[in-house]
Each structure stands twice: as C-alpha cells, then as structure tokens.
Amino acid sequence: MSKIISIATGVPAYKHRQEDIFNFADTVYSTNETDSRKLKFLYRHSGIDTRYSVLPDYSTSAEDRQFYSKSNNLEPFPDLEKRMQWFACNATKLSVKTILDCIEGKIEVAGITHLITVSCTGMSAPGMDLEIMEALNLSPNIFRTSVNFMGCYAAIHALKIADALCNNDTTANVIIVCTELCTLHFQKENSIDNITSTLLFADGCAAVLIQHNIAAAKGLVLKNFFSDVAFKGKKDMSWQLSSHGFLMTLTGYVPDLVKEDFDGLLNKALKNANIQKESISHWCIHPGGKKILEAIQQSTGLKEEHLQYSYDVLKAYGNMSSPTVLFVLHKILQELEINEDKEAAVFGVAFGPGLTMETFIATYD
User: Fold this and answer.
1) Whole-angstrom Cα distance, residue 292 to residue 297?
2) Cβ(309)–Cβ(326) under 8 Å?
3) CA-CA distance, 296 to 256, in Å (whole number)?
4) CATH of domain 220-364
5) Segment (H or E) for 208
6) Tens-digit pLDDT profile for residues 47-78
7) Cα–Cα distance between 175 and 112 in angstroms, integer?
8) How many CB atoms lie within 10 A of CB 19?
9) What angle is formed at CA 171 by the lines to CA 169 and CA 172, rounded to 5 degrees?
10) Predicted TM-score of the model (pTM)
11) How many other CB atoms are there within 10 angstroms of residue 174's CB atom?
12) Cα-Cα end-to-end distance for the chain
C-alpha cells in the first residue's frame, strides 16, 4: 500500500467574484432582460462566491482585456492556438510552484523519483511533464507519465498509478500534479452547455507526494480503488476539441444520473473494500456543482455537514476539474494532522466523461 504524505494546492493570480463573472457572461449570453434575469438566478444559486483564472478579463472593463478582443462581440474570437499558447505560458509555472509547496520539509527536489502530470485543458509535445522536469532540474532518467483528457476524475486515476508505482518500489517518491486552466475555454455561443461551463469552471492546481507505506511520516494510506461507468450518460458529460478551444457538454441530466446511480456505486465500492458505510468518517466528494452534491445527499442520505468540505471548495474555487477533489482531500488531511489521534476512514469519489465514477478509500496512519 502507498501513503499520501503531503498535498498542496495552488491558484492563479486573478481572483474573480462570481457576480463579476456574471456581468461578463451577461453581456455575451443575454439578449434581453428575461435572459439576464434567468442567468442571474443561476449565478446566485450556484453555491460559488469566487473563482480563479489566469485571465484578468472576467473582472475588467473591455479596454483592459488581455486575452479576449476589446470589441463588444469578442471578435476576433480566440482560436485554439492562442488558448494553448496561454496554457503553455501559465500551466508549468503554477505546477512548479505547487510542487515545491508540496515537498517543502518532506523531501528535496532531487529526491523526486516519479512524476505524473494530469490535465485535460492543455496539450502539447513536448508537454508539461518535460517542462516541469526542466524547470526543477530533475534527472532526465526520471520515470514520468501523463494522464490526459480524462476530466474531473483524473486525479483518482493518477492516485491508482502512483499506488502501483510505490508498491513496486519501496523507495519511490511519486509526485502527482493536476493542473487545469478551464477558463481558457470560454465559448460565446448561447447554449446551455456553454452557459453551464462558464457558470462552474475555474483554474487551479494540486500536487501530491506519495510514498510506500513503510514511510515513517503520517499520512493517508490508500487502501482501495473502485471505478464504474454508466454508459447511458456518455452523451451527457463530454469534452471535445474544436478550432475555438475545448467544448464541454454537461447536461442537466447529470445530477439525475448521479442521484439514480451513486448509492449503488457507493455500496459496490464499500463491498469491494470490505468496509461498512458507518465506518466512513470523512467524505471526499468532488464538487462538480451544487446540484451534484445535493443529488449525492438525496441518493445516500448523507447530510450537508458530511459534505461540508466539498461545499466549501465549491464556494471558494468553483469546479477546477481534476484538482478539485484534491482540494477537498487537502482540507481533510489538514484536519487530521491537527487531530493526530483521531481515527479516520476517507471515502473519495469524482465524476467525469463516460459517465465515469472513480473512488478511493484511505485511512489516516
């Protein structure tokens, strides 16, 4: 078994209030007062107060925009090439800073033996993995791999890879870094998918240090993983490339699918780990949106306080795709580090295209 020794989180420089992002979206999507009123209702009931972006544009006047055109219709609209240029300029810097925060006081940079990079919002070759290696002066012989285009559940997939690596090498110091710049992919076409994406998604980064469980330091021991796919929802959550950026499909049926299927998934995952639901002390739920968290409560009978860290992350950061569940886990780990004697069993889950649901169970030892 492997152990999470440290988690660090990072966000870009620009912090936007949800009401300011509404003002930006309102000028793009609303053609009349009725549209504006409906959009404002969605923003006010999103459960989000603030989000972060590498772009200042969502809170500035038109003349101060740096990424989008200063014109009222945003034309010429940014193409995929421009979006990937901005990703390349920002993703590695944010990743490196977050990795350094993660390993501070734990290991030296030269002690990193394995690197797993995760992203679904930027692609290139050479990619972010090589750029991080160069920036940190890591050995060119380091083991590296990338998890690309899996969406919000990708962090748990990366944890599974890290667990396998640590089980094979008891001296491994595995770094996972999940970096998503979702706000680069704003689309101006007035569709429910684009409106939903603009309402929810944000930029962020999380880094995790994982070692074999023989490590002396306390941490979260990864005990079990379980995944399931509800193919009936494959058209309701998807992520496609286009000439104007990446296109998110996120239909209103997703919370219904979660409500319908989540309790069954939970029971299968618990049975697979031979653990009872009553033994779970902490719920690390990916806050894909307020409606998804509410659907999980309705499906399982969990109360809002059981998902408080998920609601807190959603409120302060929005949905950052793959790093988001690690932001929640970071809060749980901080609590456990304060209360060292407290026994804990953590159940984690994240959702993504497929409709895929990935879970893990960890204990604090």
Assistant:
1) 9
2) no
3) 10
4) 3.40.47.10
5) strand 203-212
6) 999 999 999 999 999 999 999 999 988 999 99
7) 7
8) 13
9) 70
10) 0.95
11) 27
12) 12
